[in-house]
Amino acid sequence: MEREEEKTVIHNHFATGANCQVFNSPVRVGIIAMPGAHVVQQAATETFEDEKQESATSDEQDGIVRQLLSAFYGNEKDAREFLAAIQGMSPVQITETVKRWVADGRISELSKNRALWRVLHDNGLYPRTEPNWNSRIK
């Protein structure tokens, strides 16, 4: 399998009496510097591609929130809070959370079964089957 080459981005910063090159990529071998030079190695800042990925994630979350709204009586704040709360939870933890939120009146009793399962399942948040969901939500 071929390894994709990492691109080295070089920024030349010039100030009176100074000559410095900044390499914004991982340094794998070593650093060569002029005698008397001051070398600082630090992690590169976020790139435009990182920002694009974050906004895509945000856009995806907005789409999921829109799909969840009916189960949360149209309350966007609750839908967002629920979506954030279940990130990284196991399927059992997710169903327990749903049961609590139904008991608290934050999730509609009518939407807790197929409607909510479908949104979570289709968006990869709850991987188990609908019968599994229904048996856990009872």
How is this fold's topology laid out?
Layout: E1 10-15, E2 18-23, H1 48-68, H2 76-86, H3 91-103, H4 114-122, H5 130-137
Antiparallel strand pairs: 1-2
Question: Could you walk me through the main structural features you see in this protein, from its secondary elements to its overall organization?
Answer:
By secondary structure, the chain is mainly alpha-helical. Helices cover 45% and strands 9% of the residues. The chain is built from five helices and two strands. It has helices spanning 48-68, 76-86, 91-103, 114-122, 130-137; strands at residues 10-15, 18-23. Helix 1 (48-68) packs across helix 2.
Radius of gyration: 25 Å
- H/E element string? EEHHHHH
Beginning-to-end CA distance, first to last residue: 49 Å
By DSSP (H or I, 4+ residues per run), the number of helices equals 5
**Biggest pleated-sheet summary:** 2 strands, antiparallel
| Lateral arrangement of strands in the main beta sheet | 1-2
User: What is the average of the pLDDT values?
Assistant: 78
As a percent range, the share of strand residues is 5-15%
Going by helix content, strand content and strand pairing, the class is mainly alpha
Which percent range fits the helix content? 40-55%
Number-wise, the strands total 2
